[in-house]
Structures are given as C-alpha cells and as structure tokens.
Amino acid sequence: MNKFSNLLGAFLLFSAVINGQNQHRPDTIGVSNSYDLDEVIVTGSRVAISRDVMPVPVSIVSRNTLEQSGETNLLPALSRQVPSLFVTTRGMAGYGVSGGAAGGISLRGFSGGAGRVLILIDGHPQYATIFGHPVADAYIASDAQRVEVSRGAASVLYGSNAMGGTINIITRKALADGNRLNVRLMGGSYGTQRYSLTDSYRNGKFSGVVSGNYERTDGHRVNSEYDSWSGYAKLGYDLSNEWKVTGNINIAKANGQNPGTVTQPMLDGTTDVLRGMSGLSIENNYGKTSGAVNFYYNWGNHKINDGHFEGQNPQEYLFHSTDYMGGVNIFQSVGLFKGNTITGGFDLKLYGGNAYRNPETEIYADHIKLHEVAGYLFSHQELGRFLLNAGLRLENHKLYGNEWVPQAGISYKAAPETHLKLSVSKGFRTPNMRELYMYEPANEELLPERSISYDFTVSQRLLENRLSMEMSLYYMEGDNIVEVVQVDGRPQNQNVGEFANKGIEFSMNYRILDNLNVNSNYSYLHMDTPITGAPRNKFYAGVTYSPGRFTLGAGAQVIGHLYLSTGENVQTTNFTLVDARVDYRALEWMKIFVKGDNLLAQKYETMFGFPMPRATFMGGISLDL
Question: For residues 106 and 281, what is the distance between their CA atoms, to the nearest angstrom?
C-alpha cells in the first residue's frame, strides 16, 4: 500500500495547492458549465446525479469517442478509455462464442466471461442465460449515445452478475428537431469493410432513431473470416409534459470462424450467433418525483461447430442453444425535503433456455426456466458539504431463496471542485445453467458467489472545469467462487474459491484549448488469484487536435503483465499499441478519414496462441445528409 499512499498524497497536495488559487469559484455541486454536460450519470443511482458527488466510481464514454474509434463494436473504445477494463481480441473484427472465443471482459480482475461483470442496455441485463456471460458481438457502437461503466459491486440496483461492476449502454435518441441522416463507408486491411447508416428524426412530441450496420473481414490468418449485420430502432412519444413512452428493438447476427492457435490450427470452427433485444419504457417526471416502468425481452439462437484438428473427423452434429430473458423493472424517486431523494424499485426477471448437440440423445439443458424477484430502496441525502447514500436490496431466487444486498457511501466536498468519496457495496452472482445442469462438472447444489467492494475516490476539477482528474483506491474480496475440482475421481463444480483484488485507478481529461484535448487513464491491479485476460498495469493516453477542417487524433496504450495463462504454467506478456486518425471535412456534409492501428507493428497477443495483426489501416467517408 506504500505506492498507493504516495500517489494519493501527491494527488491531494496538488489539489490543495491549485484550489488555493481557485477559491473565487461558485460553490456548486451540480452542472456548472458546458464542460460538465457529460458528467451527469444514471447508472449508479437510477436517477440523474452529478458524477462528481456519486460515491461509486463511474467512467463515461461519450458518443463522440465511440464515433472517433471507427469501430462497429463498442468494446474496443471502452478498453482504451476505462481504467481497469480490458477486452481480449484475436483478429481484425469479431469475437465469437464457445471455446477459443475472444471478447473476454475483465474489470478489476473480475471476468465477464464468468458472468461477474454485468452488461446492461438502458439498465436492462444482457447476457446469454445458458452460459451466464455477455455476447461481445451483439454490442454495437452506433446504437449507443454513451456508455457508463460502474467500477465495483453494483448488485444493490442490478442484482446478480454485477460483482465486479456494470457496463450500461445508453441507447441513442434524436436530440435535435428535423431529420438527420448519416452514412459511413469504410475499407482497409485484410479485406475489412464497415458500413453504417443512422437516421434520426424529431418533430414535436415524436422522435425516432433507426440504424443499420454491416461488417466483414477476411481476417489476418487462415480460417479467420467474419461478417455481421445489425439493426436498431428506437421510437419515442411525449404523451404530456410529465409522461413519455419509448420503445426500442435491436437485432444482431454474427458469423465467424475460430482459426485455432498457431501451433494447433482448427478446421470448421464456425459460429452463427443471432441476438435480439426489445424494450418498452413509460417514464414520468413531475419535478419532485420521477420514475419509470420498463419492460424488456432478450433472446438468442446460437449454432456452433466446435471444429476439428487435422487428422480428426469433422463434428457429426452442431451445438445448438437458445435462450431468453424477460422482465420488468419499476422505480420511482421522490424528494421528501431539501437535499433528499429516495428511490424505491421492483425487479422481476424470467429466464431460461435449452442446449443440445444431437437432439435425440445429447441434450444438455432441456428448456430450463428460472426466475428472480427483487425490491430495493436507495436514498441520497445532502447535509452541507456531505452527500450520504445508502441502499438495500432483497432478492428472491427460485433456487436460492432470499439474498440481502446492502450498499453505503459518502461524498465530501472538501473544496469547491474537490470531492472525497468513500463507498462499500456487496455483489453476488447466482450460478448459471451451465454450472448447474450442463456437462460432466454440473452440480445442482451450488450456492451463490459473493463479494464486497471498498472504494476511496478523490475527484478534482480545475481551470474552469477544463481539467478534470480522478483517483480511486479499491479493495475487493469474495468467496464461494465456483471452481472445477476433482470429487471421487471426476470433475465437479464446487463453491471453493476465494479472491482478494486491490488496485489503483487514475483518469484525466484536459481541454487545453477549444480545439485541443488530452485524456489519459492508468490502472494497477493486484490479484491474489490471477485470471487470464487481466493485465497488472494498463495505461492509455490520447490527444485530439482540430485545426480548421482537419481533426488529428493519436493514442498509445501500454499493457503490462497481462496474464495469458495461469495455474502451473503462468505466462504473461507486455506490449505497446499506437494508433492515429486524420479526419478532413471536405464539405459541410462530407468528411474523409483514415486511421491506423498498431502503427509500431508490435508482435503481440491478448489470448495465448492467437497472434494479433501487425499495423493495419482503414479509410472511409462519412456523409451527413
């Protein structure tokens, strides 16, 4: 902890010195000028609150950042912009599912592949219920208005799977009156092509957004082709000044190949993934009270050829699984008196699915149906320079009965733009259907996993909010972790694992000039029990400069001590990736751009045996019609 103490002391000393020069600034907690507009969050509280005073650390990735990435999938941008978040990759595009799949999400050493990091779309859970993990190819950048990443346990609001944190994808909506159409065409290395079309319309009480995407690549290795298409639509109508209704639907289909490792190439390792999501929201806002009723339904259909190696026979049957998740969440917030907000909510989730290879003899999960019901209360209270919050959730699972989930936090305004924040929260995860019912290690006697997160955060704004910084220290521990052990000579899932992760996170954004911006983040992670796909050190720095019609951007990501394998044969790797992008607005409605990734042509991999491509380039055109 000496390293943490020294860094924290230096940060606080710097803040104190600068604040001595900024005491004339108004004493406000909320939004104070245009540079704060992206700093109001909803993920950690269900209701809008300033990020500065929210005790739980939350990272925000804006619409502009997602567009500048040039990616169809939003995970690459998140991996660069969010401290402690890392995503494994194996090629130019596509992640896949099943063995050898990429898209493994690690947040503070918690694996999304194991279902300990929860993906949300507009606050609704999103994952394949058969296996309990996210499906990376289903999360499309053009569908997102912004992404809020809550770092640390968030089960008090979102229930199971939020042990390590949540990634909340807030979908796009029409922000301006009239019709706006954007078309983007891209092409580049290894036959990669990306096309997208987004149309937004707003007129009076009606608004709507429709988008479509197509992506394909030949891949940089033999048998690494990938293609996908997706469609998204969101329609909204203001019933009155206080009430509005919104409906949205998303469909994504991805076809990919797993080439296997370089030492053992695979043949016929194909995946065919179809995911769908729909939602209906009825919202109210009367000033002192606001809330919503949200219905959602998600589904998936996966066809997988597990492939074979040279000299082996092809698979006789494909693996086939279907899954669904539907539910409703209801919440209402009310301010009983000055500085107070109390939110009460109710969640109902129904989910299930089936999985088989030979539908006659090889059935792994036979239309299993489970459900969870929960209620929670969450309160914010301002007391002078302090903001206190506390929450309590009671969740009832069909198999496990009741689970109590508390959370508490405090934020202190030490100076006009300096906030000290402390939080403690519980997380939990109920075993998924694979662990309970599928394959040889299945064990129906498993119990939920549990974790506790402790966070201390210092946030600082300077220079009329042009410079913002945040540093977090955290300690997370848990038990009842499901692991495969040998019982009576055969493998079985058991609640035998424990963990203790601790680390430090730092992020900074500095708008030096109106057309010159610098941002960076760093995270250090220590794991008592390492997991693959989690780096010990992660650093990113990026700069954007917009002189006239040009916009120039460059970034560097440094990864240190990334675990490629654990256990008896621990292997780690280090690498540095440099990227750059140049945009030129040739006409008011036309922008031409070119981008390069891994410009140092580094030889690296984020998954053992799956080398990534060297320097790659993409170019394209964006039309605003």
Answer: 30
C-alpha Rg value of the chain to the nearest Å: 24
Element (H, E) at 192: strand 192-203
CATH superfamily of 2-624: TonB-dependent receptor, beta-barrel domain (2.40.170.20)
Pick from 25-34, 325-334, 414-423: least confident: 25-34
Tokens representing residue 364 in the block: 């792994």
Residue 22's pLDDT is 39
Decide if pLDDT at 150 tops 70. Answer: yes
Other Cβ atoms less than 10 A from the Cβ of 587: the count is: 10
Tell me if residue 240 falls in helix, strand or coil: coil
Which sign, positive or negative, has the C-alpha torsion 70, 149, 164, 119? negative
CA neighbours closer than 13 Å in the CB half-sphere of residue 541: 4
pLDDT, position 15 = 42
pLDDT at 36 over 70: no
Please determine, for residue 31, whether its predicted confidence score (pLDDT) is greater than 70.
no
Local confidence band at 30 (pLDDT 50, 70, 90 cut-offs): very low
Closest by CA to 506, choosing from 515, 519, 497, 518, is 519
The CA distance from 356 to 363, in Å, is 4
Tell me 128's DSSP state: B
The two tokens of residue 620 are 């394209």
Report, in this order, helix, strand and coil percent for the chain, each rounded to 5.
10, 60, 30
- Domain residue limits, the chain: 2-624
| CA distances, 15 to each of 30, 212, 418, 518 (Å) | 20, 46, 7, 19
Helices (H) and strands (E) in the chain, counts: 5, 32
- Hey, what are 283's tokens? 């919202």
